[in-house]
Design goal:
A hairpin with a 2-residue loop joins β23 (about 420-430) and β24. With about 450 residues, the protein is α+β, with helices and mostly antiparallel strands. The chain folds into two domains: about 5-280, lpxc deacetylase, domain 1 (Ribosomal Protein S5, domain 2, 2-Layer Sandwich), CATH 3.30.230; about 305-445, Hotdog Thioesterase (Thiol Ester Dehydrase, Chain A, Roll). It has helices at about 75-85, 110-115, 175-180, 190-200, 230-245, 260-285, 305-315, 360-380, and strands at about 5, 10-15, 25-30, 35-40, 50, 55-60, 65-70, 70-75, 90-95, 120-125, 135-140, 140-150, 150-160, 165-170, 190, 210-215, 220, 250-255, 325-330, 335-340, 385-395, 405-415, 420-430, 430-445. It has a six-stranded antiparallel β-sheet with strand order 19-20-22-23-24-21. The longest helix has 25 residues, at about 260-285.
Length: about 450
């Protein structure tokens, strides 16, 4: 399959969600070439969409969850595995709840509706990823290595912490082998995990109809095991689904020991980082294309301040000085506008989060307070002061802030009494609000 593929027509399935226990209707729709796979929440206002990319992974506890802002879709791996197993590059998965139906705990039912809908080739070529050299991740008990290869292969060993039901399987992933060797393998858990999962609000829709339970040396199931190595094959099914979050098919041999969703997604992040390296290098060392103008600096009106002026007023210093420039100060209107250029060099991106950098919301709050502090200092004509938070109310984070964004911080002072100020702060990127809050702070000697 050298060309991209989508569905020939829409395909639908209804059932319950494994973790939520809610009834859900799912429809998989054809999509244009180069659009990838995305989930659409038709039960929410605006029918928001989340791209099936590892950058949008928010949780990997017992399943893979995608999130964008406040919108989430849980347990996406079995649907993604069915699409990736058949080589479907572009599709829209519509849901009227927060996770796809679990069906029988495998991808079998999803394969049936895809087969019924048919697969349509598209004229655009597929873009494969082949690692230039072996890649490895180690995460807890998980070890996963990706070797260069002409095809996509998975070799996997699974076992629990006590070494029970250790299983091994290896196969090349083609549409045929996917359908016959992996797609029917059901999810499973150990009996002693069930109480913990229930207490944490998970598997509300779980039963022996959609999962296999292992108790000591016994296997509890509503039907005989579908494969002699059903447990490791289901782990491989999850790998197919999670690694599809890379956004392109793999030509490589995955060797996994005790894999899980966290390790699968960590490998996907490492692959995406490898893919983006040449792009980042090209952007760094190449001039902008002729048809693209270099971004113009934001104008600074009278009353604005450079970084030197900011550091004369505030005692904050990097990495906790979160303003690069003041664009405007309107003392009559009690308003101020500041700017923070968010770059990948920020120290907090090392841990928030590796492979998925997002500016912490609390630091956006801190930037609001620093900008508000400058306005208050200007009004009372005092320097060398610290702005201490007293409270933050009606805080909302609307969109993630990532490297390359220019954070525009708009603050309006709503009340001033001595050295205590109340302000309404709004952070914007490209004119769109990403966070807002009402803050109360107090100035004290530095």
């Amino acid at each position: 399959m050298l060309n991209q593929q989508t569905l020939n027509r829409s395909a639908s399935f209804s059932g319950i969600g494994l973790h939520s226990g809610n009834r859900v209707n799912m429809t998989i729709l054809p999509a244009p070439a180069n659009s990838g796979v995305r989930f659409r929440r038709v039960d929410l206002d605006g029918r928001p969409e989340i791209e099936a990319r590892v950058e949008n992974v928010s949780e990997t506890n017992r399943s893979t969850t995608l999130a964008k802002g406040n919108v989430k879709v849980h347990t996406v791996e079995h649907v993604l595995a069915a699409l990736a197993g058949y080589g479907i590059d572009n599709a829209v998965v519509e849901l009227d709840a927060n996770e796809p139906p679990i069906a029988d705990g495998s991808s079998r039912e999803f394969c049936k509706i895809i087969q019924a809908a048919g697969i349509a080739p598209q004229p655009e070529k597929r873009d494969f990823f082949t690692p230039a050299e072996p890649m490895e991740i180690r995460l807890g008990e998980t070890i996963m290595t990706l070797f260069p290869d002409d095809q996509f292969k998975i070799t996997c060993t699974s076992a629990d912490k006590k070494g029970r039901f250790t299983q091994f399987y290896s196969t090349e992933i083609t549409p045929k082998s996917w359908e016959t060797e992996l797609a029917h393998a059901r999810t499973f858990c150990f009996y002693e995990e069930i109480e913990y999962l229930f207490k944490n609000g998970l598997i509300k829709g779980g039963s022996l109809e959609n999962a296999v339970v292992i108790r000591d040396d016994a296997v509890l199931t509503a039907e005989p095991l579908r494969y002699p190595e059903e447990f490791v094959r289901h782990k491989m099914l999850d790998i197919v689904g999670d690694l599809s979050l890379i956004g392109k098919p793999i030509r490589g041999h995955v060797i996994a020991v005790r894999p899980g969703h966290a390790g699968n997604c960590e490998m996907a992040r490492k692959v995406v980082e490898q893919i983006n390296k040449p792009l980042r290098a090209a952007q760094t060392f190449s001039p902008p294309p002729p048809d693209r103008k270099a971004p113009e600096p934001m104008p600074t009106t009278e009353g604005g301040m450079s970084i030197e002026g900011i550091m004369q007023m505030l005692p904050h210093r990097p990495p906790f000085l979160l303003i690069d420039r003041i664009l405007k100060i309107d003392l009559a209107g009690n308003k101020i506008v500041g700017v923070k250029n968010v770059t990948m060099n920020e120290d907090f991106f090392r841990g928030h989060f590796p492979g998925h950098p997002i500016m912490p919301g609390v630091l956006q709050l801190e930037a609001m307070a620093q900008v508000a502090g400058i306005l208050l200092l200007k009004r009372i004509e005092m320097a060398n002061q610290l702005a201490y938070f007293m409270s933050a109310e009606e805080v909302k984070w609307r969109k993630p802030v990532v490297p390359g964004d220019v954070l525009v911080i708009e603050v309006e002072m709503t009340r001033i009494r001595g050295k205590i100020g109340k302000a309404k702060g709004v952070c914007k990127v490209d004119g769109e609000i990403v966070s807002e809050a009402n803050v109360t702070f107090m100035l004290r000697d530095a």
